[in-house]
Design goal:
By secondary structure, this protein is mainly alpha-helical. The protein has two domains: 161 residues, no CATH class; 68 residues, no CATH class. It is built from ten helices and four strands, in the order E-E-H-H-H-E-H-H-H-H-E-H-H-H. A two-stranded antiparallel sheet has the order 1-2. A hairpin with a 5-residue loop joins strand 1 and strand 2. Helix 2 crosses helix 4, helix 8 runs antiparallel to helix 9 and helix 9 crosses helix 10. The longest helix has 36 residues. It is elongated and about 85 Å long. The two termini are 44 Å apart.
């Protein structure tokens, strides 16, 4: 039976009012990913230990001071290997380590966004506490007692681990007539001043966004909207920061169609 057979479904209502559905990774999946990462750490540590021991042995007689520095460097290396390993890969691989990538899970924020480098580092430094008193006892108890299988590092960083396959199922609804902050239809924002290419860019994004991973979707929507802002006239009574770029692009696409100037592909 797949490790995620009993994974819970979680719906995240983001601050931008976009609902995202995720499948929370089960404890089994997280354990398998950790086992793979731990094996990699052990193998790297073993090789480094042998190399370091040989180097220290050669330096003891000729340069005792250098042998002590080598030993100190080796200790720092092991610390970074154990705690820095997870943060390093989660930063460069957007929430994944080799083990997580192999199992198909990923760390994200509770809001659905990717973790920042600082959040990833803080999350993984708390492995020191999660590991106590032995073999991740604190972390396992936290995971069992929390609905989203969170260890202490997740609780502090505001993160959770989800199944990678869940990203392909994210399909935020695109309403036919987007609703403005006032609860009524969006007022004109100058969509008629957009070129055919710019309108097509919006439509292309809205058509394929459900296939994008959340962090790619957020970034792409922000970039498109920032590119179009100089041409828009957003009413002063609308707090644009309270709504996602996604929703504003939906409103622009709807406005463009309503003016009769829409040209589809």
């Amino acid at each position: 039976m797949p490790a995620d057979s009993f994974a819970d479904k979680l719906t995240i209502d983001t601050p931008e009012q976009t609902a995202l559905d995720f499948a929370v990774a089960g404890i089994g999946s997280r354990f398998l990913a950790l086992a793979i990462d731990t094996l990699i750490q052990i193998l790297v540590g073993f090789v480094a230990g042998i190399a370091g021991s040989i180097l220290i042995g050669l330096l003891v007689a000729s340069s005792p001071r250098s042998s002590l520095w080598t030993a100190a460097v080796l200790v720092v290396f092991y610390f970074l290997l154990y705690f820095g390993y997870f943060a390093f890969f989660e930063i460069i691989w957007n929430g994944q380590t080799p083990g997580k990538r192999k199992i198909g899970i990923r760390v994200i924020k509770d809001s659905g966004r990717p973790l920042t480098a600082a959040e990833s580092i803080g999350r993984n430094l708390l492995r020191i506490v999660d590991w106590l008193p032995l073999f991740y006892a604190v972390g396992m108890v936290c995971a069992v007692l929390t609905k989203e299988n969170k260890r202490l590092g997740d609780l502090v960083a505001g993160s959770l681990v989800v199944r990678e396959a869940a990203f392909s199922d994210l399909k935020p609804a695109w309403q036919a007539a987007p609703v403005a902050p006032s609860g009524n239809a969006w007022p004109p924002m100058g969509a008629d001043r957009l070129t055919v290419e710019e309108a097509s860019l919006i439509d292309s994004y809205l058509s394929r966004r459900s296939s994008l991973e959340p962090y790619v979707q957020f970034r792409m929507a922000d970039e498109i909207l920032n590119r179009l802002k100089p041409k828009l006239t957003i009413p002063a009574d609308i707090n644009i920061s309270a709504y996602s770029s996604d929703k504003i692009l939906e409103a622009l696409a709807f406005e463009r169609r309503s003016t009769g100037r829409y040209s589809g592909n």
